[in-house]
Design goal:
Helices cover about 35% and strands about 25% of the residues. The chain is built from 5 helices and 12 strands. The longest helix is centred in the N-terminal third of the chain and has 42 residues. A hairpin with a 4-residue loop joins β9 and β10. By secondary structure, it is of the alpha/beta class. α2 runs antiparallel to α3. About 5% of the residues have low confidence.
Length: about 250
């Protein structure tokens, strides 16, 4: 047999196999894309994977599971879970006043899993709010059913709440040592601190400085009180904004 003919035949067979392999690969790729598009279309159809269940995790005291489920149901009820925008659900849940943090995830085929962390009330804020010292945030829930007895803090802006709270925390040990109880602390528009005791006496502390001026003023006054040299009978306010001593305002009859 002619060697040149055998060589040409082998080359022809190799080319034929290559073309068949390439054609087969092309068919596989086309079918893969077709199947991908088909299954993608099926998945994103509203009727394919509807959201049917909500699983709620976290210790709930002030927020009810129904309240959370109602919010999710409004946004996700019977919506396709595959295309559901969890950011919208997340942001909507954060609008519930008692919700501090929330984590939302999908559990296929049909469940939304929500983990909720509630705010912890550390103090009352102004007339209608609460302050969470951990989150360093003021929030405004429905106060009708809130019965916890807390110190009331106030200032001209919500962003001053952490400052007022820190002052209150620093005052509490000093007052406790004198068997006195603080029920309110105000930072007014000129940054004067006013402390109200449970006996309704207001102690005007004045402005603070970087060296803890108001804390020293309060400590000095309480030293006088604990020494038995001052009593609160018929006292309306005590003004500590003096270099030496303090002024006392009496109730007028």
């Amino acid at each position: 047999m002619n060697k040149a003919f055998v060589r040409r035949s082998s080359i022809g067979i190799s080319r034929g196999r290559y073309l068949l392999s390439a054609l087969f690969l092309l068919i596989v790729i086309i079918l893969s894309f077709s199947l991908y598009d088909y299954f993608k279309d099926q998945i994103v159809k509203d009727s394919s994977f509807p959201t049917r269940a909500v699983q709620i995790k976290g210790k709930l005291v002030h927020v009810t599971k129904k309240e959370i489920a109602d919010v999710i149901g409004l946004l996700a009820g019977n919506e396709n879970i595959a295309t559901l925008d969890l950011n919208k659900v997340h942001n909507a849940l954060l609008q519930i006043a008692w919700v501090d943090k929330v984590f939302v995830q999908k559990q296929l085929p049909d469940t939304i899993v929500v983990t909720v962390k509630e705010h912890v009330a550390s103090a009352l804020w102004c007339n209608d709010g609460l302050y969470d010292a951990t989150a360093k945030q003021v929030f405004y829930p429905n106060m009708n059913n809130f019965k916890q007895s807390l110190v009331r803090l106030s200032a001209t802006h919500d962003d001053l709440a952490p400052e007022v709270y820190n002052h209150a925390v620093s005052f509490l040990p000093l007052l406790r040592s004198a068997n006195l109880q603080m029920i309110a602390l105000e930072l007014d528009s000129i940054r004067t601190l006013r402390l109200t005791l449970s006996n309704k006496v207001v102690i005007v502390l004045g402005r603070d400085d970087d060296n803890g001026l108001v804390l020293r003023r309060l400590n000095n006054f309480l030293a006088v009180y604990k020494a038995g040299k001052f009593n609160f009978d018929n006292v309306n306010y005590v003004d500590l904004r003096y270099d030496v001593g303090f002024a006392v305002g009496m109730h007028t009859k």
